[in-house]
Amino acid sequence: MSGPCAESSHRSRGPVRRSGVALGRFLTGAGLPVFVGAATAVYELFLLAVLFAPADWGFWGAFAEEFKVWCFSYDPRTGGMEWMAVVIMLAEPLFICGVLVGIWRMGRGRSLDPAPRLARPVRPAMAGVVFGLVAVGGLYAIGRPAAELPVPPFPGERIRTQLEPPTFALVDQRGEAATDADLAGAVTLVTGVYATCSTSCPEILLQVRDTLDALPAEVRDRLRVWAFSLSPEYDTVELMTGVAEAYGFTYPQFRYLNGPVAPTKAVLENWQFSARRDPSTGLVEHANLFILLDAQGKIAYRFNLDRRHEGWLREAILALTAEAEAARL
């Protein structure tokens, strides 16, 4: 073919051919391993920055903590995480990169002239860095924690109940009897924990501790805290006493209640703690409840382990103790 049409066809195929040649060089030369290596380096630096970022590093610290919780079962309270998962996540890309480089060297790499290729990998390396940064940016955009909404004010009487508490007859960590009939006479905070719990129970106990510390002394002295054992089989007197001492609770303000296994489990069921032991882990899955009873012994409020409820719990205690004091006068 000749003439204007043939000339035009040659012109249109030129860029395509050059692109195909460039792609072939990229795939069979040093470009692909360098590109993958650069992207892998960015990924590894990202993981290290996540692993060692302190939680108080603003948005990045919050993102890193969320990432570790989801990917490595990170526990913010203890700092523990599944290190094997960390090792796998760090080593996997390096392994893939090493395999790729090995294949390249066994194939095209042996026929390449190393001298002129020292300068060529600059562009693939830059492309790999950009690719890695875009991927990391995407992870951050997807996984960054949402901004926390302001806590609404305590609804007060609008969410208050006046329910009769389920009956129970248990003993505390000192062997003293405690029944539902003893609930009347003072504002009482009821919750449920077990001594060997390493998940939410420490948070529950810390919130109780923080709530007590935040109350005015005259209110704190009139508040009782009763904790049902969520593991009646294993919560011994020694363990229950140890928990009370570890969190600085005093007796009789804090009473840790337990009893025979079957009756205690019936109490937990009636109070809706939904405690079930997972046979595969040995952990007790349970509701994280704070049940607040007024001075008449009626269930007034029911909260859970939620940041919003933390402030509401304190407000409810203040309201109920003020109500009890007004009734006494």
Which percent bin holds the helix content?
40-55%
Number of strands: 9
Adjacency order of strands in the biggest sheet: 5-4-3-8-9
Q: Work out the radius of gyration.
A: 32 Å
What is the CA–CA distance across the termini?
111 Å
Order of helices and strands: HHHHHHEEEHHEHEHEEEEH
Overall outline? elongated
Number of helices: 11
Structural class: alpha/beta
Biggest β-sheet strands, sense, barrel? 5 strands, mixed
Low-confidence stretches: 112-116
What fraction strand?
5-15%
Whole-number average pLDDT?
85
General description of the model:
By secondary structure, this protein is of the alpha/beta class. The chain has eleven helices and nine strands. The strands form three sheets. A five-stranded mixed beta sheet has the order 5-4-3-8-9. Helix 2 packs antiparallel against helix 4 and helix 2 runs parallel beside helix 6. It is elongated, with a radius of gyration of 32 Å. The chain starts with a helix and ends with a helix.
Write the layout of secondary structure elements.
Elements lengths: L3 H25 L2 H21 L6 H15 L10 H24 L7 H4 L4 H22 L25 E3 L5 E3 L7 E7 L7 H14 L2 H4 L2 E7 L7 H10 L7 E4 L3 H10 L5 E2 L6 E2 L3 E5 L5 E6 L2 H22 L1
Parallel strand pairs: 3-4, 4-5
Antiparallel strand pairs: 1-2, 3-8, 6-7, 8-9
List keywords for this structure.
transmembrane; two-stranded antiparallel ribbon; SCO1/SenC; 12% strand; 329 residues
Structure at a glance:
This protein is of the alpha/beta class and 329 residues long. Helix content is 52%, strand content 12%. The termini are far apart.
